Fold this protein.
Amino acid sequence: MGKKVAIITGSATGVGAATAILLAQKECNVVINYTRSENEAFETAKIAEKHGAETIVFQADVSKDEECQAMVSATMKKWGQIDYLVNNAGRTKFNF
């Protein structure tokens, strides 16, 4: 068996990106998930790859079941396993 595999939702920026990079440093392959921050997602992947990780950059709205299933399918197709799932994606709506 190879490296562990992690899907980190909302991992293009912020805490999610930091988590993906940390897991890459800990010898995990990582799925970088984003909804709108494509450039940032690829930048996060580039940093993770510098630490020896293989990456998948995957656009998916995690509030949509079919998009989550597609992300899992892509992960399983590439690595055949998922060891960690970090549910970091969030949405904030302010009603002031």
In short: The radius of gyration is 13 Å. Residues 51 and 79 are 18 Å apart (CA to CA). Helices lie at 14-25, 38-50, 65-79. The chain has a mean pLDDT of 94.
